[in-house]
Specification:
Elements lengths: L1 H16 L7 H25 L4 H25 L4 H18 L3 H30 L2
């Protein structure tokens, strides 16, 4: 529910940040659906990162890092003029398992496990972006 609140907070601030801009209900609905799906997934990943089980810690760091990397790649491909933002996000995505991993095995496992996460996340970003284009 926190992410749903963040969506409403974000869209409520749009008119104050961009003069004449308004949030449309469709955009809000799409991002609320994403928040409802992503909140529990990332909440579980946060819990798994604190687990004693190596596989869960690897999955948690791979999920967070992979999503950062995928969003950076998506931004770079869709908006090449924003390349610096995308490259920064990709660098953060690589750094997350390295920084959050407790041991080298966990760090390397997290980096390796990012690849399937990146592929799934890119598919999700494509789907989300397509939803904004559907009539």
């Amino acid at each position: 529910m926190t992410l749903v609140g963040a969506v409403f907070g974000y869209y409520a601030s749009v008119p104050f940040i961009v003069e004449g801009a308004a949030a449309d209900a469709r955009s809000v609905a799409i991002w609320v659906i994403v928040a409802l799906a992503g909140g529990p997934v990332f909440g579980m990943a946060g819990r798994w990162w604190h687990s004693d089980r190596l596989a869960r810690r690897i999955a948690a760091t791979a999920l967070l890092g992979g999503v950062f990397f995928a969003e950076g790649l998506d931004r770079t491909l869709r908006n090449p003029h924003l390349g610096a933002v995308g490259w920064t996000m990709m660098a953060i995505g690589v750094a997350i398992p390295v920084i959050l991993g407790r041991r080298n095995k966990e760090r390397l496992g997290g980096l390796a496990a990012e690849l399937p996460v990146i592929l799934v996340a890119l598919g999700a970003y494509w789907t989300i972006n397509s939803a904004f284009l559907w009539s």
